[in-house]
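Quarterly update from the structural biology core.
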Amino acid sequence: MDNPQSVTANFRLGPPPPTSIVTPQPTRMPTPTLAATPAPTPVLLPSKGGSISLSSRSIDFGTVGIGVTAAHRSLTVTDVGKGELDGGIGNLTPPFTVTPVAGNSITFALTRNEKSEFSIQFMPTAVGPATTNLVLVSNDAKHPLMTVSIKGTGAGGKLSAPKSFNLPATKVNATATETFTIKNTGAGVLSGSIGPLASPFMVTSAANFNLGPGGSFPITVTFRPGAKGPVKQSLAITTNAPTAGTVIVTVQGKGK
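Predicted structure, tokenized:
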């Protein structure tokens, strides 16, 4: 009888080894995709066979003076189609305005070869360029929206004055009176004031002026020397001109 084999079992007493705990990762949310904003679709008027024609697709006023009468340009809408042309014009903001010519309105209903006329105005209030677009909407099947580009440049006044003004040699305590002239050589209105002079000089003409383009203004100065010898002073002329707002004129005289 065989001897039975002995079997040894090893046992470890104590707490079981710790179990690893897996921390769940937060679920990444997909980055939202921004949809492109669709361009506005113009409201189309039902076509009646009309076709639009404009007298101009661009208007350039050139240089227009500030403070002067508004410049005008005409825009004519013509139906060159076989049917009726219905539509209207948009608004403009200052310094531009648009108004229908007498007998017309901002909307039009034209038959073949019929016209509607509008007046575009430009009255600048600031120096520099200005631009805008005039929009016309119609039932022209091919051209439901049309634009007219508009531009102009505002210009101010400009002072022209002599650098110096000489009065004749004058006896002590006698008086001499002479006049010189300033001019506005700019496209806009020129306004300003004439500074005072101290004895022995005196400005006797008006102290303020307002000149349209091409306008002139006389400045009268009196000289009453109290002693012999040369004397001179600076006369300041201040204006609203965008450049060289203040001009200095040297006033000179001599007592004898």
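Residues 52-155 form a domain with the Immunoglobulin-like fold (CATH 2.60.40.10).
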